[in-house]
Amino acid sequence: MASEPTDNDGDADRYRAPALDKGLDILELLSEQKSGLTRAEITKMLGRNASEMYRMLERLVARQYVVRSPEGDRYSLSLKLYALAHRHPPMNRLISEALPVMQRFADAAEQSVHLAVYDRGNLLVIAQVDGPGTWGISVRLGSRVGLIDTGSGRVILAFETDERREHMLAEHTKVKGEITLDRAVLDADCQQIREAGYSKRESQQTFGVTDVTFPLLGPSGQAIAALTCPYMRRIDEYVAPSIDDVIAQLKDAAASLSMIHD
């Protein structure tokens, strides 16, 4: 007669979920790889059946936890787990810390400002503050904006590792109205933004607006978010802060929220 399991053994056996274990094994294995793995390599390294690995990989790709290489023969982690890990509660903490800083900027610059983070192939606006004046432009809270053709998107791409940038671009799906851009132009733009430390460019969505964007940098120097002011220049007799003033103020705001400092 078999002996009774101990409490620890009983818990391990009672709550086993083989399919879930297989999926987690794949995610943990891929997290240790820099260049991804083929299905055959994954099967061999995990000691699993080839057909069950095929089915599990297909589900992980369908749910966007894993991406295939452009050639289709290698698998690597997407940024979905990264996005999930940074959504709650760290995201709530980021918003609560950012809003007072954004409000002070908006009052001083007399411009609106919004904060965006990378989320599943595009950007998500997680905080927005309007300027104090009668006129202004703002991006609606919760909006998804383009990764390729916005200042926020390009700043996030610019301050990422080459590997993570490739993952982001692989996950990217166009939002409504997003402009297609040549990859060489995008790479050159990202290089220029890294060298300058920020982005200043005419909006590709609205005439008369200059988007000024600074990164919020994490401990490793990568962008965890992008702080953007859609600057509108007054042409009446009212003397508002100049765009140079606004750039300096936004730089200070972003630096105060970053985890590394000059």
From TrEMBL:
One of its GO terms (molecular function) is DNA-binding transcription factor activity. Residues 17-79 form the HTH iclR-type domain. Keywords: DNA-binding, Transcription, Transcription regulation. SMART domains: HTH_ICLR (SM00346). The lineage of its organism: Bacteria, Pseudomonadati, Pseudomonadota, Betaproteobacteria, Burkholderiales. It comes from the Bacteria. GO terms for biological process: negative regulation of DNA-templated transcription. Residues 80-262 form the IclR-ED domain. SUPFAM superfamilies: GAF domain-like (SSF55781), Winged helix' DNA-binding domain (SSF46785). It comes from Caballeronia insecticola. This is Transcriptional regulator IclR family. Pfam families: HTH_IclR, IclR_C.
